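Dear Dr. H.,

I hope your travels went smoothly. While you were away I took the liberty of generating a structure for the chain from your last submission, since the lab meeting agenda had it listed for discussion. I wanted you to have the full record in hand beforehand rather than looking at slides cold. The sequence, exactly as received, is reproduced here:
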Amino acid sequence: MMVTKPARQGMAGKKKGGRSGTNIALFALIVLAFVYTVTLFIEVTLATGKSYRETHFERKRKLGGRQTSGMLPETNAPSRAPTPPRISNGHLATWILTSHLNDKDMNTQHSAYERMRESPATPLTFVPGSLQLSHAQALKYCYADPAVYGKHFQGRRGDGSNVPVSYSQKYKLAYVMLPKSGSSTARYMLKNQFEAGETSKSLQRIDFQAGGKMEGVEVISFVRDPLSRFFSQYEEAFIRTAPWVINDNPYSAQTHPYPYLFDNIHSYQEYEDVFCPPETRESRRECIDKPSAENGTLAERLERFVRDYDGRDPFDVHLTLQAPMLSTHNGYPLHITQIYNTTDAEEGWKSIARELLGANSSLAQSGSKGVVIEGRSYPRRLNSKLVSVETQRRICELTLLDYCCLNLPLPEVCQGTHYKDKDGVERELFCKLEAKAGRGSERIQPGVFPEKAA
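The corresponding predicted structure, in token form, is as follows:
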């Protein structure tokens, strides 16, 4: 049968149109597949929220004692609300950080994902505490820039090859101390419950691999809400560097970087008279356990210090941030297996005891006491209730690195659009995810670095 020229053109047009329609349909399927994969990943992450509340030790026991890859979460990871109808930046940041562990096909095949991940434009920002990661998992992706936080790298961390720890050879358990984060209690527990001694060990990741000298060792630490911790840090630094302290005090009344902290306070007795006035006591013995009765004198000095402090040069080791103390001197994290929060320290110690000492051990029992048995057991001398909202928010800004790198939520007082950026625009405090050098190099950093108040 002979086909005319117009008929042939019509058939060609149909073929061309068919190919075009097929291309559009194929493109649509690819887009839908990408969206579905992202949504599925997030839903699975949230659906398994219960696993985030299991301890590293409990999960290890369920796996028959085998080592598991990756950083496992701690008991106090916050419970997650039902999945919202939209994807938050915290979910997206979690996906970017962990996609190479959860979906290798997505990591290598979706060009749209790669463009988003490696875009040199604005870094991805997210709310502190919004990552679907434990404290230890978040720390794994932290970068504490030495150019900013260099003076916070204290405690002889160095390159991570010789870090001071409390170590139990019997139980293969190491504890990394952070001042003002339950450290006195932790060291006491390691010594008296787990037969640990003070030594130095390598916390470089390579030494925990198969055949490494730290293979099978669990490394733990405890962290604390940075705002609450700052009040304790300040008081500890205050008393240790006071002019009446002679031993181990690097300062005198003339050389202290903030001498106004001690105006008209020349001895411990005069300091005691501020938080425990003579008219409120019958004897000085009462002052040890008596709640502070200071009239704002100490709170006002803290507020002045917070205004003057740039957050970069702590005048005492007790003022250092937590993330740098869990890092090497070049800003990258040490190998930490499990990080507990001091707000749930009791359950943390019970979990450790159940795994290492047995479920019937006294420490593992539900009625076990002795969780805060060392360190400060007396009331705070500074009345933190007298500290202004503005000062508390400033403290959150100074300690934002810890909130971001340890995935800690901001306290209510620090939430909201109270921070002004360089352009004078009010916005909330935030964290950011930046790629340092290509794929797999994403690092968590604070959205703003500490600076002296304007």
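Two observations you may find useful: The radius of gyration is 27 Å. The longest strand covers residues 163-168.

With kind regards,
E. W.
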